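Complex 143.
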Amino acid sequence: MDTILSLHSRLAYVVLTILALAIINGFWGLIGNRAFGARDLRISLFGLIFSHIQLLLGLVTYFVSPYFSAWENGMGTVMKDATLRLYLVEHPTTNILAIILITMGWSLHKKASDSRKKFFRIAVFYTIGTLLLLSRIPWQNWP
Ligand code: HEM
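Predicted structure with protoporphyrin IX containing FE bound:
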């Protein structure tokens, strides 16, 4: 379905922008030695929520994508073709892992009692997660 594919494609801008803002805010708070406040919580939470929405949308995208039918030709066909491998294997698995890391960053920041640790955990985990996302974006077709 075109609507789902284009929604997944457009939401990617929102997700990556919010994650970038949460990361900058995290490092900024760390460098500035600030107290972790409501605004910091909100931006980190938005990063978490939007990446989870994108994950769910990605799962739906997977099954409605025209690439999906390539599985009918077997695992070998998919793995030998770089484009199919990217869309059907690398992009989904890497992005699921990336979102697990982002979720871990969020949970670990909640467990931390001091502000420096909170900023550090958000900044580091969100950065690793976002780098993983960026590593498997189909850049030849997007933006
Ligand atoms: C935050 C996580 C994710 C981001 C930022 C993201 C981003 C993108 C982008 C930018 C595209 C290219 C869209 C286009 O060509 O216009 C794409 C395509 C695609 N994504 Fe994701 N994605 C994410 C997670 C996922 C997950 C978890 C899955 C599957 C489980 C998935 C499945 C797909 C598929 C199958 C396509 C190809 C759709 C098609 O053109 O037929 N994505 N994604």
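The chain has one domain: 2-135.
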